[in-house]
Amino acid sequence: MTQADQGGRNARPLPQDLAIDTLGRCLLPSPVTRHLGERGVKFVGEADKVLLDDSISSLTQTVPDTASLPAFELAGPRDKIFFDPRTLRCGIVTCGGLAPGLNNVIRGIVLELWAGYGVRHIVGFRYGYEGLIARLGHQPMMLTPESVASINHEGGTVLGTSRGSQDAGEMVDNLEANGIGILFVLGGDGSMHGALTLSAEIARRGLRIGIIGVPKTIDNDVPFIDRSFGFVSAYSAAVDVIHSARIEAVAARNGIGLVKLMGRHSGFLACQAALASTEADLVLIPEIPVLLEGNNGVFACIERVLARKGHVVIVVAEGAAQDLIVDPDAAPGRVGSRDKSGNAKLKDIGVFLRDRILAYFEKVGRETTVKYIDPSYAIRSIPACPSDSVYCWNMARNAVHAGLAGNTAMLIGRWHGHFVHVPIALATSRTRSVDPDGDLWMSVIEATGQPREFA
Amino acid sequence: MTQADQGGRNARPLPQDLAIDTLGRCLLPSPVTRHLGERGVKFVGEADKVLLDDSISSLTQTVPDTASLPAFELAGPRDKIFFDPRTLRCGIVTCGGLAPGLNNVIRGIVLELWAGYGVRHIVGFRYGYEGLIARLGHQPMMLTPESVASINHEGGTVLGTSRGSQDAGEMVDNLEANGIGILFVLGGDGSMHGALTLSAEIARRGLRIGIIGVPKTIDNDVPFIDRSFGFVSAYSAAVDVIHSARIEAVAARNGIGLVKLMGRHSGFLACQAALASTEADLVLIPEIPVLLEGNNGVFACIERVLARKGHVVIVVAEGAAQDLIVDPDAAPGRVGSRDKSGNAKLKDIGVFLRDRILAYFEKVGRETTVKYIDPSYAIRSIPACPSDSVYCWNMARNAVHAGLAGNTAMLIGRWHGHFVHVPIALATSRTRSVDPDGDLWMSVIEATGQPREFA
Amino acid sequence: MTQADQGGRNARPLPQDLAIDTLGRCLLPSPVTRHLGERGVKFVGEADKVLLDDSISSLTQTVPDTASLPAFELAGPRDKIFFDPRTLRCGIVTCGGLAPGLNNVIRGIVLELWAGYGVRHIVGFRYGYEGLIARLGHQPMMLTPESVASINHEGGTVLGTSRGSQDAGEMVDNLEANGIGILFVLGGDGSMHGALTLSAEIARRGLRIGIIGVPKTIDNDVPFIDRSFGFVSAYSAAVDVIHSARIEAVAARNGIGLVKLMGRHSGFLACQAALASTEADLVLIPEIPVLLEGNNGVFACIERVLARKGHVVIVVAEGAAQDLIVDPDAAPGRVGSRDKSGNAKLKDIGVFLRDRILAYFEKVGRETTVKYIDPSYAIRSIPACPSDSVYCWNMARNAVHAGLAGNTAMLIGRWHGHFVHVPIALATSRTRSVDPDGDLWMSVIEATGQPREFA
Amino acid sequence: MTQADQGGRNARPLPQDLAIDTLGRCLLPSPVTRHLGERGVKFVGEADKVLLDDSISSLTQTVPDTASLPAFELAGPRDKIFFDPRTLRCGIVTCGGLAPGLNNVIRGIVLELWAGYGVRHIVGFRYGYEGLIARLGHQPMMLTPESVASINHEGGTVLGTSRGSQDAGEMVDNLEANGIGILFVLGGDGSMHGALTLSAEIARRGLRIGIIGVPKTIDNDVPFIDRSFGFVSAYSAAVDVIHSARIEAVAARNGIGLVKLMGRHSGFLACQAALASTEADLVLIPEIPVLLEGNNGVFACIERVLARKGHVVIVVAEGAAQDLIVDPDAAPGRVGSRDKSGNAKLKDIGVFLRDRILAYFEKVGRETTVKYIDPSYAIRSIPACPSDSVYCWNMARNAVHAGLAGNTAMLIGRWHGHFVHVPIALATSRTRSVDPDGDLWMSVIEATGQPREFA
Fold it and tell me: Looking at the domain assignment, is residue A167 inside a domain?
């Protein structure tokens, strides 16, 4: 892999009304010092980067030039900032499906902009990118410390959200008309692609508008972010549902509890929820091909667990086993169709699996019951758990620092426990998935006792 | 209505090896005194009955004979008991779907039998009435204070459960073979019918086996029981789900949250959950006919709430609007089909309503989203809430008192805050439903602002 | 006991600008009909009363005149009301310590006044009776359906509260100046005494101001109210604390967990929490004299439980064993001192008991640890649980109905499952406590295995 | 700092009945392969180390020898193991105060030993190091997958715990007598010192017994472990308590809510709970000297917040401001006294602060109320939250891998998101505390608005 520190900073609009140094660095002193006390803030410097690989075995014996090692720019406050907070106008938009913590991030951005930098004009665009399309008539909300003070106690997003992209030209028109200097985009993969288009249009017009992403993915599948906000809340809530499934399974002869969890292309949520619950016997994820029949197939696994324990608990990620679902009418979505965010509509693996399991056991003449639970809306709508609350606050603070420092087309990531700057182009160029040979999957198969592969 | 105190006591097997008085009352002194201290227990006497109607306006101006007023026998310990606890063997069986508190009732029965009366042989039959069929080979569990000490911390039932009835003859054979003196049946309407059949067969054989029912209905629709155990737990859990639906609805333009709750023939759970949540805009229950179209129909109501608030939260009982679902393929169940407990399989009103609402708004050209949540398994599998914990404990104690005193075909009910004896025949002869003119429904329409009727 | 229906209605200010009948009943038709639909509301009539004693054995064989039986007036909407909702101004005040559900009751009163009757001027007085003293300068809050819509999701009271009484003259001056027609007082025993003084002063001045009480007592010790709002929430929260105490006790050799719960003069909360938790071994309440030493004393009980189980969990009501605490410095309060509400300051039984138990076991040479938890503030500040949420809503609705119908010096009680009108003078004339011979205490000693008395 | 990889491995007892290579590495092949499937496990190799500092700015421009960089050995399974699982006997002991997750770690160790390696003899020593003293007569518990299957659902520790150290000689006698090969010690700083003494005695006797530590500190103050197990659970529970304090504070005029949290020498828990709650106005920790009086003192801060918001919420770590408490009778502990674990008994800052605040405001003639909550036992006794559940499982797995591979006097740490081996000697040689110039404290002062220092 090449150097991670690319893209974002180059795309940054250069300040013309400020004295700048030869590197194009802006010279406005950060007001954070003033706000936070005389002793001074520990600012992040030019050389503060986090190695992409921090294991010794990854380093060659002699490293000629450490600066050339792949690394991320550390997030945090800079001593010089690009925008003048007294005149800066900022916008926030939340896109795509709900995730716990959206309100915490909104709140954190507003508080840091207001108290940390003295920004006094912050608007929230309503209902995702739709709110940036003037002709749709959604009035933006003015956001102040008072108006956001307690929004974190509720799930969802006070701004509203929607799926799908909008015309970049119209959106930039709106940003210009509103005099927005920084737009914070809270959204998933699709929204980050939208953010790239937006920043390309901004660059084409030569505008000084920064686009800062805060990646929102309940699937936890954004690369270079070892934990997306809301993820801990989500798998924590899923634990209760898995427990319910187990209680139902235990109460029936040959009872089978089946829980479908979010995870379109990755099984992080299913794995983590299964580990946290300690009660799953079988975890099916997109990364591990699923075989139903055969000696090492899902049916055989179920039979073995039933024989040993009398009941089975299965956790399945929504994106698992999509290749098996041949009947397009088995589920609400249709093959090849896509939702407004451009995501391929998945066929419902939960319903499919329930029906196939019932059919199998009817065939072999063994009575079973399957209790199927699909808790998605009830999970993604909860407030952030305390751990996510802290995490969102720090995400938000670093997003503001990144924006004020003049970055654009950049999102806040986390690498080896550090918050870092990740160019959106890099983050959207690949996906993150559960490594079938890695420790997470190993941990799951040890916890469940399931086979490593169904092949 | 005729006198409530009928049936049960007459069906009671008379003790032949004990001195009995002219009324057939048994003369063994209750050991509860010995166990509970020298000061003596306040026993319930012959005349302790609770009026069916305790309002003054119900009494005629002069009551010639108060003993003739309709009334229930008060539950509680009797000074004389029918069975000798030193030799008595008791059985417990749990039938039908899960409800919070089953384990609490099991635990309570065991503790009261053991510590209150000194009974030392208590078995739990496995998987509902199936466990009473010897040839199916389910070994009963021995139950002791130690083995049940902490089972109340989990939902479900440690005994397992199943739907459906079994052959009364085979079951009584088993009771005889095991020397069971009292069988405690925890179950719903179907199971109580089963209990009647069982006690009829017992009477036919002239056996001294008491059948005591503890009514279990998450729908809260058993008559003469103002609150079934697990009901408070269930609607409490439903509140969180309604809240999730609201969060989802608020976050979308014209967002519609739809929650389906249990309630085959009655809307108690839907009403109570809606009241407790304070967040429902529309509650649909079996007792109130549903009209979709028209000026006062569901669609019009939704439009009005959307216009006023921008989102709608709908709570629907599973038994509501069954007459509207004409397409038998709209839902997993089919018209006329029944499950193993003999309940008619309901057509899925949640899916039906979601699809019809989407179709309507597509027709009128207004974009909406419907987020539909069906939380049933996640609700009925939870542990009893503290309020139900106390309630189950008292249900269990009174069931034991009733059984030891020699009652049979009797269940424990609650009337105006008192635990009472209700003949199973009486309780199963009618159903309880939400009164469209009563205070509960009035309370709901005030809380939601919905019309009283859709007509 | 004499007839319950006294005091309140007689003290009612007579309407002079309305046609009234010979009984002084007002003739303004209730607008509830108009608001709630054409079908009409089932109004409560003159003769709708609830018998004080609904057991048959309490009725004499021939009752010459049922109207003379002790009974409470049923709460609920009346077909004629006293005040004209279009001009009526209402006030709400919350007094004394926090209890879960205060915000629910405030919200319910506002919604019922506004939507049920059309009242448009509702104010909340701040910080208890202090808010009625003009010279203290607390500005009342205007309350509307919007401002109270979500307050029930938080504990505490949006109005604020304070302890202590204020000068009745000054308070009535304020009510007059603000043109208040009905004042709803949410408070405990002390506040209800204050409400009586207030209504006496109102009567003295010949004013038409109704005072309606909603009894708030986390101790659940108000007579004629079988359940005070917030009580279920409180004991539910206490269950978690008792569980914590047990976990701590189990983890230590001879571990003793000690939890102090609210209950100045009554042990309802301690009993109910102990029953709900199923984990207490010893419950100490004010109604049962406590002996520490001796063969049947607390120390001996602890020793016996330790010998059997290895750990002990003790729940003590704050008002228990006050006679034992001889050293006035053993606790923050002093003998004879009173707080601002006029309650005698209790000596801290928790600290006292912890120290005495440690001293005892040190004396007998047995190592123990005592983990003492005092959770009061953490319990009384929680939001209402779903069960209390419904209950508060109905309390509030009935308080509004009572007020509009022209009652005064009346509080909303509950008797045998019915909401009823209870004259404040009657409710404050006695206290309610756990009956040492009743079923609640019996239930506790069966659940804990503790002796019935320490004597 | 010198190289981190020291001590532990050198102290390892050498195997004499196995072929070993020149480096003393054992040659028994790991059975993990066999248990976990044919595809093979990704074992951790010799060179897999994690850099102590992973920032680029920390690397010199040219690194001559990367192997000499300070680094930790990566935890995880090794391809060769030291002990023969078929004959190995393992012990587990839990020491000191409770922390959420103890049962999860016990369970994880047993499952990994049993299923991962095939160890069949695992005992749990009771009540901390006391359980290793034979003459005290605590019988060890046999631990199996069945016996530990569900223990994680409860807080506390099934083994029991105690404070204080015991004679190393007696303890090693016991280990020898029981034939223990690996002892897993779950405990805090004091217990880790005990573990060192134990391993020194083992080395002195030339025995082959490994001592593996799993650091347990609710204060989160063990160095080289960025997150101790139970920490997330603890601060999550503290959030609710802070919320209660806020509700109480808001409901009173000039209300002050005061919460004392664990943290003898470090403020991590107080900081993290305050951040997560978003409701604290003032956080006092041991690392930041506290001044009460003066223009920038605590009293002045309280006054400013009261003026702005009308109420204040204060979170104080138990170890804060110890220098201020001059009166030894102000708190249960005495100056200089120590508990059985050797920890200096702290004076009660909560009570001290409450009294001083009340005295101050009485002096300046402003009425306030202080509601003080000390939730410690209620926090440390809860079950592990889902996030800690996963974390404990991985801690346990890595502890087992470390033990089987022949490490001793080593604990499992976490560094930059990787589990690593940390010599106990290194971990106990220093303490970890909140950096007054670091991002955590900066984050707190931004969140609260409090001054950075009280000086």
Answer: yes
* Residues B304, B297: Cα–Cα separation, whole Å: 11
Which tokens go with C228?
């005070």
How far is Cα A24 from Cα A10, in angstroms, rounded to an integer?
10
pLDDT in tens, C331-375: 444 444 556 666 666 788 999 999 999 999 999 999 999 999 999
Cα dihedral across residues D269, D272, D276, D277: positive or negative: positive
For residue C175, how many C-alpha atoms fall within 13 Å in the half-sphere facing its CB?
29
For the domain that residue B199 is a member of, what is the CATH number?
3.40.50.450
Is residue D114 domain-shared with residue D253, that is, in the same domain?
Answer: no
DSSP classification of residue C437: T
Kindly list the partner chains of chain B, i.e. chains with 3 or more CB atom pairs below 8 Å.
Answer: A, C
Distance CA A382, CA A156 (A): 7
What separation in angstroms does the CA of D4 have from each of B168, B419, D64, D277?
A: 74, 70, 19, 36
Q: Which tokens hold the place of C404?
A: 């509009």
Whether residue B213 is found in the same domain as residue B165: yes
The answer to whether C89 and C121 have CB atoms below 8 angstroms apart is: yes
Range of the domain at B156: 28-59+66-228+384-415
Q: CB-based contact (8 Å) between C330 and chain D?
A: no
Same domain for A211 and A264, yes or no, is no
Q: Using a CB–CB cutoff of 8 Å, tell me whether D274 touches chain A.
A: no
Considering only CB atoms, A247 lies closest to which of B155, B245, B250, namely B155
Nearest-5° Cα angle at A383, A379 to A384: 100
Query: What pTM did the predictor assign?
Result: 0.91
Q: What is the pLDDT of residues A114-164, one digit of tens each?
A: 999 999 999 999 999 999 999 999 999 999 999 999 999 999 999 999 998
Sort B106 into a burial class: Cβ within 10 Å, 0-12 / 13-18 / 19+. Answer: buried
Are D280 and D269 spatial neighbours (Cβ–Cβ below 8 Å)?
Answer: no
Residue of C nearest to B277 (CA): C386
Give C446's contacts in chain B (Cβ within 8 Å).
Answer: 36, 111-112, 115-116, 397
Residue A372 to residues A347, A355, B236, Cα–Cα distance (Å): 16, 10, 22
Q: What is the CATH number of the domain that holds A303?
A: 3.40.50.460
- C175's CB contacts (< 8 A; 6+ apart) are C91, C132, C183, C202, C207, C209
CB D254 within 8 A of CB D306: yes
D377 shares contact with chain C (CB less than 8 Å): yes
Q: Measure the CA–CA gap between A267 and A433, rounded to whole angstroms.
A: 7
A68 interfaces chain D, CB cutoff of 8 Å:
no
DSSP single-letter state for residue D68: G
Q: Which residues of B are catalytic?
A: 219
> Do B411 and B340 share a domain, yes or no?
no
Contact B412, B177 (CB under 8 A): no
**Whether D150 and D274 share a structural domain:** no
Q: Which residues are CB-contacts of C120 (< 8 A; sequence separation ≥ 6)? A: C86, C114
Tell me if B15 is assigned to some domain: no
Whether C219 sits among the annotated catalytic residues: the reply is: yes
Residue C94 lies in a domain: yes
Question: Would A4 be classed as within a structural domain?
Answer: no
Asked whether the predicted pLDDT for residue C308 surpasses 60, the reply is yes
Per the DSSP assignment, residues forming a β-bridge with A81 are A28
ipTM of the complex: 0.89
Q: Does C237 touch chain D (CB under 8 A)?
A: no
D152 and D99 together in one domain: yes
Q: What pLDDT does C31 receive?
A: 77
Say yes or no: A222 and A110 in one domain: yes
Domains: count for chain C: 2
Q: Between chains, do C248 and D156 touch, taking CB under 8 Å as contact? A: yes
Q: From the CA of D370, how many Å to the nearest CA of chain C? A: 11
Residues C237 and C109 in one domain: no
